[in-house]
Amino acid sequence: MIPNDTTSQALANAADGAREEQSLHGEILSRLRDYIVEGNIPDGGRVPERQLCEMLGISRTPLREALKVLASEGLVELLPNRGARVRRLSEKDLGELFDVMGGLEGLAGRLACENITDEEIAEIERLHYEMYGFYLHRDMHGYFHVNQLIHQKIVEASRNTTLKATYANLAGRIRRVRYSANFARKRERWGEAMREHETILDALRRRAGDELSDILFRHLRNKRTAAVEFLNAGGVAASEPA
Fold it and tell me: What is the rounded CA–CA span in Å between residue 145 and residue 235?
């Protein structure tokens, strides 16, 4: 049966509605993720559903759908019939997670140098200078967001689906403490991180896989040190295992 004009319009309207709903879900998820990552709820703290619904202008159903996604990312834990809470990380958790992340990023760097296009390198270079602008203006939110994009772009350039999925799963678990640890960095350490990114970009331009792999692993090791220092100084992460 050939659809008539009325049926076609109905299908188009349904498709538009689905796209709008998907877009709204993505916006809610992004805002909620940022709210938690930026430390507005303490580690181990319960997620205040009513307050967040009012802040986001939504009902509890879309909020809980977003929380399920954040739970799959490792940012929150869902409690049976008791809502959700922000996941705690111990020093041991952080050490293990950053070591694995360093290994994954090192592998991603090596593979990226084999597969990345000139256009992708140009995009990472553009992001690098955008991040540098945020660094100069001490804009932590902008700096962190673009920093994460750069690392994500390198992982995507590896063209390895399993690597990308594993990286995404672990990245969510340490995103919050990585963000918070930036505030504990001394000015020299932040400058050092920017210089490390200069060497990352340089090795990527030259497609020097082994060199980029080593740089990325050391870069993550330095981030681990900053995160553990922040943890031990009484930062947002917990000092005891979850």
Answer: 20
More reliable by pLDDT, 104 or 80: 104
Residue 242: how many CA atoms within 13 Å on its side-chain side?
Answer: 16
pLDDT tens-place string over residues 151-196: 999 999 999 999 999 998 888 888 888 887 766 555 667 888 899 9
Contacts of residue 57, defined as CB under 8 A and 6 or more positions apart, other chains included, come to: none
Among 86, 113, 131, the domain boundary falls at 86
Is the domain of 72 the same as that of 153? Answer: no
Q: 59-70, pLDDT tens digit by residue?
A: 999 999 999 999
- Residue 213 falls inside a structural domain: yes
Domain match, 55 and 101 both: no
Structurally, the chain folds into a number of domains equal to: 2
